[in-house]
Amino acid sequence: MTTKRASMLERYFYLFMSLLNAAVVVYGFSFTINQNLLHPSVQPPQIVYLHSVVFSAWVLFFILQSALVRSHNVRLHRTLGWVGAGLAVSILVLGYTTSTAVLRLAIQRQLPFPTVPFLFVEVMELVCFAVPFALAIYWRKRPDFHRRLMLIATCALTEAAFGRIPSLPAVFAPAGVDALILLGVVRDIIVERRIHKVYLYALPAMIFLQIIAEYTYVHQSSWWIGIGNYLLR
């Protein structure tokens, strides 16, 4: 049974994780999509709609790429990888632009929300996506590195979805991201009897950045306030 379980994990784990990430995104955003996008009381900036389309495209792209590898269509997977690179750049640009546009609107409406400190959380989320993705491109000829880094990058994007789950306090949203990545660690322990070095370096680094981001947000750190105010001008 242990051998059979390991074999299943080896063959289907990354496809399963792509579907699990999609499920988290759909579930998390289902709590806010109606009032924020479909029937908003305050019309959001138009870039929010473009960002939602590109973000959804990435989730579907990750499923497609995982399915292509599972079905041994590696050549097509590699060709489409450059489409993914374009999507990733779009996510970074739109992610930052959308965040600042929404937070500026919140400031204009004088909403009771710590907009400037929250921008740091948004920036760190993009960093936690960008760095693993860039490394995944660099190590695209090392499948063991590439697939784990792509998984980490995609999991990083689910923080916004976890933050929208009513039963989960927003400050604990990063823990949801870490839990998804830890499934990769468990997979390695079961299948390969060791933890891959990607997780040994990437997960502690991500947790460190998450702690800094949450501390800055909760305590509204003065060192960031000046920077954030400048960025939101």
UniProtKB/TrEMBL annotation:
Highest rank taxon of the organism: Bacteria
Transmembrane segments: 12-33, 48-68, 80-98, 118-138, 198-218
This protein's UniProt keywords: Membrane, Transmembrane, Transmembrane helix
UniProt keyword Transmembrane helix present: yes
Protein name: Putative membrane protein
Species name: Granulicella mallensis
